[in-house]
Write a structure and sequence with these properties.
The complex is a heterodimer. By secondary structure, chain A is mostly helical. Chain A has one domain. Helices cover 84% and strands 0% of the residues of chain A. The longest helix of chain A is centred in the C-terminal third of the chain and has 31 residues. Chain B folds into two domains: 135 residues, P-loop containing nucleotide triphosphate hydrolases (Rossmann fold), CATH 3.40.50; 56 residues. Helix content of chain B is 32%, strand content 26%. The longest helix of chain B is centred in the last third of the chain and has 16 residues. The chains are: A mainly alpha, B alpha/beta. At the A-B interface, α1, α4 and α5 of A face α2 and α3 of B.
Chain lengths: 222, 212
């Protein structure tokens, strides 16, 4: 367990030293929120209608944008090789990396999402469901994105491939995430949606680390 | 002193439809320095990566202390130190933070002597500098500082002397001699004229193997 915390500490330190990693997804998220009304229509009734979908799509793309870099720098400087030939469990390192990625992308996105909701005239009964659905949904995005990142890290140009690999996996999260907010806005019960999001999260939490470790081994050893 | 640490049997490796080695066998005994020689592209790095478990692109069998490596992977990893082309040094971390992480990863490294190791590699006073602002040779030294911490019997070093100055090379050679005297073994590739004081170096020439 102390090894896990050491790995987590290293990842957080790396992110802290490289702060543009934190700012990039947030800036993207905010930019979409600012530009969308300018490009389509500033009409409050229209915006409040599309708010749930647009906010969730923006969050998903912001997450996808940063997912490519999870293993990239470790692969390039040889740290990943050392992790693979370590007697310590690789999945602990991988879990620490995914948690850090989620903290930097998903968690902060969920924190600033009420601000974006306000820009979209989201009815006030929708805020709770927006934050909770993002908090429950974005860890899944990080976990599944990391699988794609691990598979493509050995390739020169993995950027396009990673979107193709990961986007189909993101679709259920998007549907139930946006559905949660929609239900919240209309005053319907959201527990069912949250249960589904949580179920997807638990499922990916169990299987994704195994898949990520296997994918990393394939990427480095072949 | 003649116990076999690592044994390779009937190794076959092909890369880009070119056979690098076929029916290649070798043994590495305790207390031995083996230098892999060959032209650029002759498969030196491929061989070392196979030996340390970073490549699956081979056929054949590897044994660690007479046991199949796949069966004893964890204990093999603990007994082996690999310094590759890529040093595994993070540019945004300081030399000390880098070594602290390496110690976490590898149980055979001694946590207590990080400061001593940094002094040995001539980075005393640079502990708190992020590694991206160090020179190429100094970054190399951060990676090689692991050698001073290591208690692993087998060292696999891929071009360890790249970017090092003459004095740095001499210090590493002395360190290798000390490691070998204590019963450890070293497999390395280098284009540098190796001079390990008081030790014979066994060369393995990959060019000759390719011809026969």
């Amino acid at each position: 367990m102390s090894f896990f915390f050491a790995a987590l500490k290293r990842e957080l330190l790396l992110v802290f030293r490289h702060r543009s990693d934190i700012i990039n997804p947030l800036a993207f998220f905010l930019m979409v929120a600012v530009l969308f009304p300018l490009g389509v229509s500033p009409d409050p009734s229209f915006l409040s209608e599309v708010a749930s979908g647009v906010i969730w799509v923006a969050a998903l793309l912001a997450c996808l944008l940063s997912v490519d870099s999870i293993f990239r720098s470790d692969f390039q400087d040889g740290s990943l090789e050392q992790m693979l030939i370590s007697a310590e469990s690789l999945w602990l390192i991988v879990t620490a990396k995914v948690i850090t990625h989620w903290l930097v992308s998903g968690f902060f996105l969920a924190l600033i999402s009420p601000l974006v909701g306000m820009m979209f005239f989201l009815p006030e009964q929708g805020y709770f469901s927006l934050i909770v659905s993002l908090l429950l949904g974005t860890p899944t995005l990080s976990l599944m994105g990391a699988i794609g990142s691990a598979l493509t890290v050995g390739l020169r140009k993995g950027g396009v491939l990673i979107s193709l690999l990961v986007l189909p996996l993101y679709i259920p999260v998007l549907i139930f995430g946006a559905g949660t907010v929609q239900a919240g806005v209309m005053g319907l019960p959201i527990q069912g949606y949250l249960a589904l999001l949580a179920a997807i999260l638990v499922f990916s939490l169990m299987l994704a680390p195994v898949a990520i470790v296997a994918a990393l081994k394939i990427s480095v050893r072949s | 002193m003649d116990s076999v640490l690592l044994e390779v049997k009937d190794l076959f490796c092909e890369r880009d439809e070119r056979i690098l080695f076929d029916n290649f066998s070798m043994q590495i005994n305790a207390g031995e320095v083996v230098q892999i020689i060959g032209q650029n592209g002759s498969g030196k790095t491929s061989l070392l990566r196979i030996l340390c478990g970073l490549s699956d692109a081979y056929e054949g069998e590897l044994f660690w202390q007479n046991e199949l490596i796949d069966d004893v992977r964890n204990s093999y990893y603990q007994s082996m130190l690999y310094v590759g082309h890529l040093s595994g040094v993070k540019g945004t971390l300081t030399a000390e933070e880098n070594l602290q992480w390496m110690v976490q990863l590898d149980n055979s490294l001694n946590k207590c002597s990080i400061a001593h190791a940094l002094k040995q590699v001539g980075l005393y006073g640079f502990e708190d500098v992020p590694c991206h602002s160090l020179s190429a040779g100094q970054q190399r030294r951060v990676g090689l500082a692991r050698l001073y911490l290591s208690s692993a019997p087998l060292w696999i070093l891929d071009e360890p002397f790249t970017a090092l100055d003459k004095q740095g090379v001499a210090e590493k050679e002395a360190l290798i001699a000390q490691h070998v005297s204590a019963g450890g073994s070293v497999i390395l590739t280098t284009h540098h004229d190796l001079a390990i004081p008081g030790k014979n170096i066994r060369p393995i020439n990959l060019d000759e193997l390719a011809r026969t």
